[in-house]
UniProtKB/TrEMBL annotation:
Residues 41-101 form the Gliding motility protein GldL-like N-terminal domain. The chain crosses the membrane at residues 37-59, 65-83. This is Gliding motility-associated protein GldL. The lineage of its organism: Bacteria, Pseudomonadati, Bacteroidota, Bacteroidia, Bacteroidales. Keywords: Coiled coil, Membrane, Transmembrane, Transmembrane helix. Residues 125-163 form a coiled coil. The keyword Nucleotide-binding does not apply. The keyword ATP-binding does not apply. Pfam families: GldL_N (PF22827).
């Protein structure tokens, strides 16, 4: 048998399968065109995987075929993503040399702040408690003032009701008398019309 077919890696090396115009696959994927193509393949491949899974779940005709196409596409995408270049790590020690020195001299002000953090935390907690107590006291005072004003308004309404009740009763009586008077006059007019029409 042919040596090229016996060894797949040798076949790949001799035929330069992973080069595009003298550019390795890794460099191609790092280029703008490669990134766009990879993004396109990745998105469409994900669509095929989802379509295959949906067809299998919904028991569409040829669901096994769609699922197999989706999974093979996913294998291809993961295979290609293995050639993707990892993110570049920057050496911050070059910019900030203090990061190299583990026993670097730290400004005493910074050290003092670090030691005062627990005290600051305690002070902030006490201040918070005092403010909450003061807020609670103010809310109680507002409630008491509101209740006093509400009682005063209720008393005023009751006084108005008591003062207006006799006038209301008198007005109702007077209105009833006017209605009765109108009814009598209306009856007299109807009687007069009836007398004229019967003659």
């Amino acid at each position: 048998m042919n040596q090229q077919l016996d060894s797949p890696l040798l076949f790949i090396k001799t035929h330069n399968l992973f080069t595009f115009q003298n550019m390795s696959l890794q460099k191609f994927l790092a280029s703008r065109t490669g990134k766009r193509l990879y993004n396109f393949c990745y998105c469409w491949g994900a669509c095929l995987v989802i379509l295959g899974a949906v067809s299998k779940i919904a028991h569409f005709p040829y669901d096994n075929l769609f699922l197999m196409i989706g999974l093979i596409t996913e294998v291809f995408i993961f295979f290609i993503s293995g050639f993707d270049e990892p993110a570049r790590e920057y050496k911050w020690e070059r910019v900030f040399p203090i990061l190299n020195n583990k026993n670097a001299n730290v400004d005493p002000k910074i050290t003092a702040v670090n030691f005062n953090v627990p005290e600051l935390d305690t002070t902030a907690g006490e201040h918070y408690k005092k403010e909450m107590a003061r807020l609670e006291e103010n809310i109680k005072k507002l409630n008491e003032a509101y209740e006093a004003q509400l009682k005063q308004v209720n008393m005023q309404v009751e006084k108005l009701n008591c003062a207006k009740q006799p006038d209301l009763n008198a007005g109702t009586r007077q209105m009833a008398e006017y209605i009765e008077l109108l009814n009598r006059q209306y009856k007299q007019m109807l009687d007069a019309l009836n007398v004229k029409t019967t003659k």
